[in-house]
Amino acid sequence: MPSVRKNRYLLSGGYMSNTDFSIAFYDTRAYDRDAFTEANKQFLYNIDFFDFHLDERTALTAKGYKVVCAFVNDTLNAKVIDILKEGGVELIAMRCAGYNNVDIKAAEKAGIKVVRVPAYSPHSVAEHAVALLMSLTRHIPQAYMRTRTGNFTLNGLTGRDLFGLTAGILGTGKIGRLMAEILSGFGMKIVLYDPYPAKDWADAKGFEYLPLDQLFKVSDVISLHCPLTQDTKHVINENSLRLMKHDAIIINTGRGALIDTHALVHALKHQHIGGAALDVYEEESNYFFDDWSANVIRDDVLARLMTFPNVIITGHQAFLTTNALHAIADTTLGNVKSYMENAPLTNEVKAG
Predict the structure, then answer these.
(1) Mean per-residue pLDDT for 4-10?
(2) Which domain holds residue 191?
(3) Is 348 a catalytic residue?
(4) 283 is catalytic
């Protein structure tokens, strides 16, 4: 088990012993602690912040807590759920929208409620996706590195206009809709795919839903905004990549496993597509949110991705705005409050 580093915050700045509803926060960083400490001024909970992941090795540290708060790269499988149950945990509060890392059926069997933050700041994710697209198509990282060393040449930095290109949006929830509207503002044609189409919105905006294969064929930019399910896992794969234009750009700010990364590397290596900008990665839990600059990255696929000049990777950063952090903290602590007061859990996740 990793060494325990724990910070207990209270409004007064002092320390207190656990109460029945103390909350154990896992995989926290300074920005988490700051946002939740500020939000806690209206709730006055006892909060313990841990900087390590919640998984099978660390789940015993939750003993004595009624509530645990976890994030996207924590592991809450059946074994972890059992340990949490034995330790007295009654509520799992996910401080994120996704919950594919939680065994919901095991939680229900154990009598542990699961809540999440279904929406925080969809603008933060959509705007980051646009920033990735612009950075990739206009070679901003390469230009920045050149000018930092006094190199002002332009060779190799030729981009292309987004105006007139076709953007394919997979998933038209709040984030996907915002992404579509922003790209429409650039003068791009917008095509969409979602098994549950928002027809009224699309018709009002002049956007068109297409079958998935057709979307892959016609899109110059493909942006992923769908949840990770059995149906969407590896929606970008060897077959779909073959359908794409040779200069198509893939943007992923959704879930890493939406892309078969081995297939993506093959397509990039053989120049079957134009590039990719990724804020998420299928095996990111081993690396993202930590400093590996002085260590060897042993994930050969991630290491290979980082060598391509037409690939940009950010470390699950899209959510990271002050607006989103405040919304996440308020909603998460509000979910805990609802549970404590036996109020309806409007953000509860149940097994399908």
Answers:
(1) 44
(2) 122-313
(3) no
(4) no
